[in-house]
Amino acid sequence: MLNYNHARETNYKLILPGKEFEGINYFITTCELPSTSIVPIDAYYQGAQCSVPGNTMTYDDFSFTFMVDEDYSNYFLIYDWLYQIAHGTNKSPLDLYKDLSLHILTNNKTESAIIAFEGAYPTSLGSLSFNSQSTSPQDLSTTCSIKYQKSTLKTRRIHEI
User: Fold this and answer.
1) pLDDT one-digit tens code per residue, 39-86
2) Can you give the residue ranges of every domain in the chain?
3) How far apart are CA 125 and CA 68, in angstroms?
4) Fold for domain 12-128+137-155?
5) For residues 80 and 86, is the Cβ–Cβ distance under 8 A?
6) Which among 9, 8, 15, 12 has a CA at the least distance from the CA of 110?
7) Any bridge partners for residue 36, and if so which?
8) E strands within the chain?
9) Helix, strand or coil for residue 18?
10) Model confidence, pTM
């Protein structure tokens, strides 16, 4: 059955697992569903070049923007996660991976789909701009970029793709 309702950019919820990430989940203002592609293979046959579908999927980085809370705890949480990855800890590198999920909502705010990002870790945390001469102070926000091993799509209509 054809659905004539339009999707809205505000109908989403990003979940970072764990109680420590609740502050980030609450303050997320934007996120972008990354592109996914397959790498074609060049084939040559009788002097002609053609392209055939490859068997390797590539995933662009997943990024989200969040407002920084007043005591900067959500900013420092991601900073510490990055620091642990870069400088090592007594944990296995695999322990620093997290599984994130992006919940796509209908206009009635019910789940339409869940996109799981498995084996995710941050690769960058954006800058913060301070300005003591501002006449109308703005809330601070920054962007975090995430790499992940694979993504999985689950919808209401199709159990798993």
Assistant:
1) 899 998 888 999 999 998 888 999 999 999 999 999 999 999 999 888
2) 12-128+137-155
3) 12
4) Pnp Oxidase; Chain A (2.30.110)
5) no
6) 12
7) 59
8) 12-15, 28-32, 36-38, 41-45, 48-52, 57-59, 62-67, 98-105, 111-125, 141-147, 150-155
9) coil
10) 0.80
C-alpha 143/C-alpha 84 separation (Å) is 19
Write the pLDDT tens digit of every residue in 12-24. 888 888 787 876 7
Residues ≥6 apart with Cβ < 8 Å to 139:
67, 68
**In angstroms, rounded to a whole number, what is the distance separating the alpha carbons of residues 155 and 48?**
41
Q: What is the DSSP secondary-structure string of 90-107?
A: SS-GGGG-EEEEEEEE-T
Identify the residue whose tokens are 């690769």. 123
Q: How many Å is the Cα radius of gyration of the chain? A: 20
* Dist. CA 122–CA 83, nearest whole Å: 10
